[in-house]
Amino acid sequence: MTADGARRTREVALLFLRLGVTAFGGPAGHIAMMHDELVRRRRWVSNDQFVDLVGATNLIPGPNSTELAIYVGWDRARGRGLVLAGVCFILPAALMVGVLAWSYVEYGQTPALEGILYGIKPVVIAIVVQALLKLVPTVAKTRALAVLAALAVAAYLAGINELVLLAAGGILAGGWRVLRTVRADRLSSWLPIGAFVPAADVELGRLFLTFLKIGAVLYGSGYVLLAFLQGELVDRLGWLTSEQLLDAVSIGQVTPGPVFTTATFVGYVIGGFWGAVLATIGIFLPSFLFVALLIRLVSWMRSSATLGAVLDGINAAAVGLMAGVSVQLVGDAIIDPLTVAVAVGAGLLLWRTQLNSAWLITGGAAIGLVNTWLGG
């Protein structure tokens, strides 16, 4: 490996390790923090490239923000970067969730996180809004794409499935491109804990294959993950109770990094240490394989005007979904004057300085803890 290759590999590992520790807020928050690091601060990719990657990772099953990290790792440091970016982004959250799972199994509870989250959530809102302000002009390259993004926001808030919206965005933009081409040149072309199952009673190979299957077919958010896990682990296999599953999803939501580390918690509750390891590997392994296949797909799509228009439509819908999720997050995060002040302060710092978003997350956590200690 050349000196430049070694430097790039080290940069990828350190960046995504830090993001794995500080990236709260679910996929929308993760993508916003990656935009801040990759586009605004480091300039590893342009705005156009970033929205292409966001749109492309929405085409494949699995945790989209993790797949975005994996793709950027490949773009920056090829094969080693692909593996390291994904592992470094996943590992901190998996370790945190594993510790919380151990506490859950041993003591029937997990350490309180409410104070920390109280301060972090409004900071995440500021980071997401700042990213949206920069992404929207990039995806809304035409009036039609701007309208498409706005319709995606409204449809998402009305309860339309995310995958349906992405597919509709691509089809509408691609179809509009074909119609305009035909119209321009008609002759040219057409176109509490409860009981848990001890490790000895669980076949670990079957546990691994169950999570491998979920990782290979799952589209959508953490709520879709909840439905899959309910069907497989509660209803079909009987390995968990519904209460345990809700506890697991809650831990995945409130810890940084991928929400899919819920699998780590579930694996530990079902099969102990090795259950946690195998469940984590199983649910994330397909993402690495899908991204390796996706790398060629994006270049191929951009080489065709019509397929490029399809990708533009998917990008517009994806940013619209991100905006829709942000609207929902605001109601949960901005709840009193202090959280308003934290969100506004973080937004001003992002706008006026080059301060790393990780420091803003740390500051928000500190404010939340102090507020809790003071009885706020």
Structure characterization notes:
The chain contains 14 helices and no strands. The chain is mainly α and 376 residues long. α5 runs antiparallel to α14 (357-373) and α6 runs antiparallel to α7 (162-184).
The main pleated sheet reads as: none
Give the N-terminus to C-terminus distance in angstroms: 54 Å
Helix percentage range: over 70%
Helix segment tally: 14
What overall geometry do the principal axes of the alpha carbons give?
A: globular
In sequence order, what are the helices and strands, one letter per element?
HHHHHHHHHHHHHH
Number of strands: 0
Task: Return the structural class.
Answer: mainly alpha
Low-pLDDT residue intervals, each spanning 5 or more residues: 184-200
Using the CA coordinates, give the radius of gyration. Answer: 21 Å
Strand content: under 5%
The structural domain count equals 1
Mean pLDDT comes to 80
